Amino acid sequence: MINLYNTCWYFLAQAQTQPKSTPPVGGAGAEDKAPGLFDNWMFPALMAVMLVYFIMMARPKKKAQAKTSDLLANLKKNDKVVTAGGILGTVVNHRSDAEYVTLRIDEASNSKIQVLAKSIVRVITDEDAKES
Fold first, then answer.
1. How many Cα atoms sit within 13 Å of 120 on the Cβ side?
2. Sign of CA dihedral 106, 110, 114, 119
3. pLDDT tens, 99-115?
4. What is the distance between the alpha carbons of residues 104 and 126, in angstroms, rounded to a whole number?
5. Rounded to 5 degrees, what are φ and ψ at 58?
6. What element of type H or E holds 101?
7. How many CA atoms lie within 13 A of 7 on its CB side?
8. What is the pTM of this model?
9. Residues 42 and 11: beta-carbon distance below 8 Å
């Protein structure tokens, strides 16, 4: 993103420092006008490239956020989950509006741990369990 930003400013600076056109032949009443930012095609093209770049970066992020919020909304008791830290556990307690989820991480000793709901990255389904 920084490289794109620097490149944009470089091209804008180049557009501003382009040599002036030759003065008109009459010379007396002609004004010597510096080239403006919108006088050439560089600025609109640069804005189009920045817009496409922004769309390409923002859209996958929104999809990932929607997927995560959908995963948390459909989370229920006894779901087997994986956290961002790699902890495997079974959901013991979860409310849709709660910030934390209680996971049982050991069946034998009934050990439980509270984790942030946002840290749950995947729900393990029966197909996933058969594959591994």
1. 31
2. positive
3. 999 999 998 999 999 99
4. 18
5. -80, -35
6. strand 100-106
7. 10
8. 0.55
9. yes
Domain ranges of the chain: 1-17+38-73, 76-131
Find out whether 87 and 113 touch, Cβ atoms under 8 Å.
yes
φ, ψ dihedrals at 26, nearest 5°? -60, -45
How confident is the model over 37-73, as pLDDT tens digits? 666 777 888 889 999 998 888 888 899 889 988 988 8
Domain 76-131 class in CATH: mainly beta
Distance CA 76, CA 94 (A): 7
- Tokens linked to 26: 């009459």
What six digits make up the tokens of 9?
């400013």
Q: Residue 96 carries which side chain, given as an amino acid letter?
A: S
């769309």: which residue's tokens? 55
